[in-house]
């Protein structure tokens, strides 16, 4: 080990690394490099075992997800651990499913690192919506049809207000709902209540990029029934589109009626 | 070359490959593999030269972007060319800056491939908003502050209506505007007109992940002036946040006044 290596090890470093949706080859080259150089990796059940195999055999692996009959680690415990490990001069990689910037709770870990004067970075990852769109070969935006793409969640922290979904029920919007399988009836009611047609096409993509990947096509009106009938479970993306042409077609029907 | 290789070459294949925002190490491993195996690559000025160097020296490289004094290739000409090359049994890679699913005009190319019975796939990429959030270490969603993240555009196809930005002016929303530098005054007016506070924080990230990357922090109210004063040019992401705490603070001030 050179003097410079020693110096940089002494400083310690935290990387919040996007592990992508599952498939190993959807990692970025930068994420691969950070994983291979890590002294300590923290991971949870959403990070594919294939990805953990990329780390050095000497690296310490710490599972911070739910175990049978026990809860997941509280965020504060994870924050304290990554800081404590980095203070030992180690390269700490906190693996996050998808992209750490999207529903990755990255803010808490960044704040903890900064409060301790430890260098922290985010390595972006492929978020599930992007992988789902690629897998079904249906882009998230479509010229002339959808000019805005929104990602939102079906499930908020207890005590937080639910996302105001009415704002998304506009022609020209495509929406990816994360963690929403069990909230599908509420999503449907909110969107239809705010004016989205029941005919809006919905693609359900479960376990994207893994061997368990499944696609089901339905409509907003039939969403909850389809999920129940097909036995869809999280992790799954609900990709709802309200194309401009659908809005025009419905206006046309109303005008004739 | 094995019989199987020959067979798969004979069939031809089109991959719409996300080249990410610029930096070579933000490619996915899958994108790298497709680039290295390509017989023909189509690219434009937004694809970094570093990435083109990854292709085989024997691969044909076709520039389909704008040249000095000339227009970019019309989409129909690109569609015809990728189909013609794939029909020769070649592996065609159409490189797209960022993620092909986000403002990548992928639909036209997918439709052209399918109409000719040619296998087509999308390889997802890191979109500029994700790279920008990682670079400034500020996530796109924040627990308790922003539960919805939207990507939209400042510039539509001539003849298309502009995106209805009013729907985004809600507390709890973060927004990334693409191709919006020259439309910043309109974006500001639309959002403020729909109720977003002028105090909403805005991060401008130009040429993300390249050696020319620049960050400027401003507010929604000062956005257009900041862009003019700093000489910001496309490609740049305007990352506008309307946090829930800002909405509460403003309601508090109104209640007291």
From TrEMBL, chains A, B:
| Molecular function per GO | uroporphyrin-III C-methyltransferase activity
Q: Would you identify the family this protein belongs to, as annotated?
A: Belongs to the precorrin methyltransferase family.
Which positions fall inside the Tetrapyrrole methylase domain?
14-223
* Keyword Hydrolase on entry: no
Q: What class of enzyme is it?
A: transferase
Supply the EC number(s): 2.1.1.107
Could you tell me which CDD domains the record lists for this protein? Answer: SUMT
Query: Keywords for this entry?
Result: Methyltransferase, Porphyrin biosynthesis, S-adenosyl-L-methionine, Transferase
One Pfam family named in its UniProt record: TP_methylase
Pathway per its UniProt entry is: Porphyrin-containing compound metabolism; siroheme biosynthesis; precorrin-2 from uroporphyrinogen III: step 1/1
Q: Name one GO biological process term.
A: methylation
Name of protein: uroporphyrinogen-III C-methyltransferase
């Amino acid at each position: 080990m050179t003097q410079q290596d020693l110096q940089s090890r002494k400083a310690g470093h935290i990387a919040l690394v996007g592990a992508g949706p599952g498939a190993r080859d959807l990692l970025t080259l930068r994420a691969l490099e950070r994983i291979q150089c890590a002294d300590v990796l923290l991971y949870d059940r959403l990070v594919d075992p294939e990805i953990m195999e990329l780390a050095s055999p000497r690296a310490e692996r710490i599972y911070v997800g739910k175990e049978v009959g026990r809860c997941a680690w509280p965020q504060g415990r994870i924050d304290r651990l990554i800081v404590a490990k980095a203070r030992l001069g180690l390269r700490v990689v906190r693996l996050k499913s998808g992209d750490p910037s999207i529903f990755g709770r990255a803010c808490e870990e960044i704040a903890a690192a900064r409060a301790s004067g430890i260098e922290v970075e985010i390595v972006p990852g492929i978020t599930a919506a992007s992988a789902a769109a690629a897998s079904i070969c249906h882009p998230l935006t479509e010229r002339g049809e959808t000019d805005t793409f929104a990602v939102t969640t079906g499930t908020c922290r207890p005590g937080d207000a639910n996302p105001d979904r009415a704002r998304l029920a506009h022609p020209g919007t495509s929406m990816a709902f994360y963690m929403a399988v069990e909230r599908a009836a509420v999503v449907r009611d909110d969107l239809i209540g705010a004016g989205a047609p029941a005919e809006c096409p919905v693609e359900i993509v479960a376990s994207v990029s893994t061997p368990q990947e499944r696609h089901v096509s339905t409509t907003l009106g039939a969403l909850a029934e389809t999920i129940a009938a097909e036995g869809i479970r999280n992790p799954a993306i609900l990709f709802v589109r309200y194309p401009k042409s659908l809005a025009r077609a419905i206006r046309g029907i109303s005008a004739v009626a």
